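Re: beginner question about structure tokens

> Can someone show what the tokenized structure looks like for a real chain? I only ever see the sequence side.

Sure, here's an example I had lying around. Input first:
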Amino acid sequence: MVMAEDEEHIRFWGKSAEKVIYGEECPFCHSRIDEFGFCACDAAGD
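And the corresponding structure tokens:
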């Protein structure tokens, strides 16, 4: 069964949340930067 959050993620990004590839950690917010260059604070280490 697909959750509502998953449907929105698939519609927006084209894949389910568990298939997103994460890289390094952002030095500002300490969350992981995803394959699209986004993190929790949107600085993405800049």
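Each token stands for a local structural state, so reading them left to right follows the chain. Residues 18-46 form one domain.
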